[in-house]
From TrEMBL:
It is found in: Cell inner membrane. This is MFS transporter. One of its GO terms (molecular function) is transmembrane transporter activity. Residues 174-441 form the Major facilitator superfamily (MFS) profile domain. Its main location: membrane. It is a multi-pass membrane protein. InterPro entries: MFS_dom, MFS_trans_sf, TM_effector. Keywords: Cell membrane, Membrane, Transmembrane, Transmembrane helix, Transport.
C-alpha cells in the first residue's frame, strides 16, 4: 500500500502582505479606525434600506435612497478633493468626519424619539454620503504619504480586508439588530463605532499637499480635468468601474428579494450583502500573488469580466427562485429557499472577490501614477466614481425590476458588463500594456 500523498503546503507569500503595519504606525491607526467606523457605517446603510422598505413597502423607494445622495456626493467629492490639494489633509478629513458623525447621531436621536420619517432618512443619508466621500478621498490621498510606493498594493489589499470586515459583518449584524432590537439601537451602534475614526485621524501628522497649490474653485477643478484628459489609463479605469457598478450592483433589490423571492426577510438581506464582502475579504487574505503582478490594466479588465459572469449567475439563481425551484410550500420572511440562498451567496462572493482584485489594481494605479499635487482632486473623482456608480446602479436595478421582474437587472447587467469591458479594453492597447514598474497615468 502506497503512502498517502502529501498535500502541497500553502506558501506564506500567498497570504496578504502585512508590512505596511510595521513600516507606518500612523497607517496602522488610520486603518483600525477606518475599519471600525466602516463597520458602523454599514449598519446604518442596511438599516436605512430596511427602514425605508418597512415604511413604504416599495423597492423603488429603497433604490431612491441611494440616488438621493448622488448629487450631494458628487459635489462634495469633487470639492473635497480640491480641499485636499490645497489644505492640510488631516484637517480636511477630521472636519468631514465630524459632519458624518453629527448626521448619524441625529438619525439615532430621531429613531429613539419615534419621529423618523422617509424624508428624514433621505436627507440624512444624503448628508452622510456627501461627507463620507470627502473623508474617503482625503484618506486615499494621505496613504501614499505614509508608505513607500512598493507597499501601495499591500495597502490596497488591506483596504480590501477593511471592506470585507465592514460589509461582511455589518449587513448581517444590521439584519440581526433590526430584527431583534429595532432601528434606534442599530443607528446608535454606528455612532459608537465611528468614534474610532477620530482616533486614527487625530493622531496623524500634518499632511500638506506637495507641489503647486491651487486654490479650491473652478480653476482647480479645470486643472484636475485637464490632467485627467491627459491620463488615458486613469480615465479608462473610471469608465470600467462605472460599467461594473451600474449593471452589476443589485443590493437595492435585496430587501424585496428577501421578502418575496428567496424568503427570509432582513436576515436574507444581510447574508446576501455579507457574501459580497466575504469574497472581498478572502481575496485580500490571499492577495500575496496579486502584489507581484505588473500588468495592472489587464488585471482590472479580467477581474471585472469575472465580476460580470458571477452577476449573471446570480440573475439565473433568481430566475430559478421565480420558477419555484427548491422552494418550501410558502416563501416569506419566515420561510426561506435555503438552497437557492446558498447558491446566491456563492455567486455574490465571487463578485466581491473579483471587484476587490480590480480595486487593488485601480487604487495602486491611482496612487502610483498620479502626482501628489493632483492626488486629492483625482481621488475626489475616484470617490465619485466608486460611490456614485452603485447609486446609478441602484436606479438601474430599481427601475428595471419595477418594470420587469427582480431577476432581470442582474441577468442582463452581467452580460452587458462582460461585453462592454471586452470591447473597451480591446480598443485601448496602452491600458492592456500598463506596467506597474513604470506607472503612467
Amino acid at each position: 500500500m502506497s503512502a498517502p500523498r502529501r498535500l502541497p503546503r500553502l506558501r506564506r507569500d500567498h497570504f496578504i502582505d502585512l508590512r505596511p503595519f510595521s513600516v507606518s504606525p500612523a497607517f496602522t491607526r488610520l486603518w483600525i479606525g477606518s475599519t471600525l467606523a466602516g463597520l458602523g457605517g454599514q449598519l446604518t446603510i442596511v438599516a436605512v434600506m430596511l427602514h425605508v422598505y418597512e415604511l413604504t413597502q416599495d423597492t423603488f423607494a429603497v433604490s431612491m435612497v441611494a440616488v438621493a445622495g448622488l448629487v450631494p456626493m458628487i459635489v462634495a467629492g469633487l470639492y473635497g478633493g480640491m480641499l485636499a490639494d490645497a489644505f492640510d489633509r488631516r484637517t480636511v478629513a477630521l472636519l468631514a468626519a465630524s459632519v458624518t458623525f453629527a448626521s448619524t447621531l441625529l438619525l439615532a436621536a430621531l429613531a429613539w424619539a419615534g419621529i423618523e420619517s422617509v424624508a428624514w432618512l433621505f436627507v440624512l443619508s444624503a448628508i452622510n454620503s456627501a461627507a463620507n466621500s470627502i473623508v474617503g478621498a482625503t484618506k486615499s490621498a494621505i496613504t501614499p504619504r505614509l508608505l513607500p510606493r512598493d507597499l501601495l498594493p499591500a495597502a490596497a489589499a488591506l483596504q480590501g480586508i477593511t471592506v470585507g470586515i465592514m460589509v461582511m459583518a455589518g449587513p448581517a449584524l444590521a439584519g440581526v439588530l433590526v430584527a431583534f432590537t429595532g432601528y434606534a439601537w442599530t443607528y446608535t451602534a454606528d455612532v459608537l463605532l465611528m468614534t474610532t475614526l477620530f482616533l486614527g485621524l487625530w493622531t496623524l501628522p500634518g499632511i500638506r499637499p506637495e507641489g503647486e497649490i491651487v486654490r479650491p474653485g473652478l480653476e482647480s477643478l479645470r486643472d484636475g480635468m485637464r490632467f485627467l484628459r491627459r491620463a488615458p489609463n486613469i480615465r479608462l479605469q473610471y469608465i470600467l468601474d462605472i460599467i461594473a457598478m451600474t449593471f452589476g450592483h443589485p443590493i437595492a433589490l435585496f430587501p424585496a428579494i428577501g421578502a418575496v423571492l428567496l424568503g427570509g426577510g432582513p436576515i436574507t438581506t444581510g447574508v446576501l450583502t455579507a457574501s459580497i464582502a466575504a469574497g472581498a475579504f478572502l481575496s485580500s487574505l490571499f492577495s500575496g500573488p496579486i502584489g507581484r503582478v505588473r500588468r495592472h490594466g489587464l488585471g482590472i479588465a479580467r477581474a471585472i469580466q469575472v465580476f460580470g459572469i458571477a452577476t449573471t449567475v446570480f440573475g439565473l439563481v433568481l430566475v430559478a427562485a421565480q420558477l419555484g425551484w427548491f422552494a418550501p410550500a410558502t416563501v416569506d420572511t419566515a420561510h426561506a429557499n435555503v438552497i437557492l440562498i446558498a447558491v446566491a451567496m456563492l455567486a455574490l462572493a465571487v463578485t466581491g472577490a473579483a471587484d476587490n482584485v480590480s480595486a487593488i489594481y485601480r487604487s495602486t494605479m491611482m496612487q502610483s501614477a498620479v502626482p501628489d499635487t493632483m492626488r486629492g482632486r483625482l481621488q475626489g473623482v475616484f470617490m465619485v466614481v466608486v460611490a456614485g456608480g452603485p447609486r446609478v446602479g441602484a436606479l438601474y436595478a430599481g427601475t428595471l425590476a419595477t418594470l420587469t421582474a427582480l431577476w432581470v437587472p442582474s441577468l442582463v447587467g452581467g452580460l452587458i458588463i462582460v461585453g462592454l469591458v471586452g470591447v473597451l479594453v480591446r480598443l485601448h492597447p496602452r491600458f492592456r500594456a500598463y506596467d506597474a514598474a513604470n506607472p503612467q497615468p
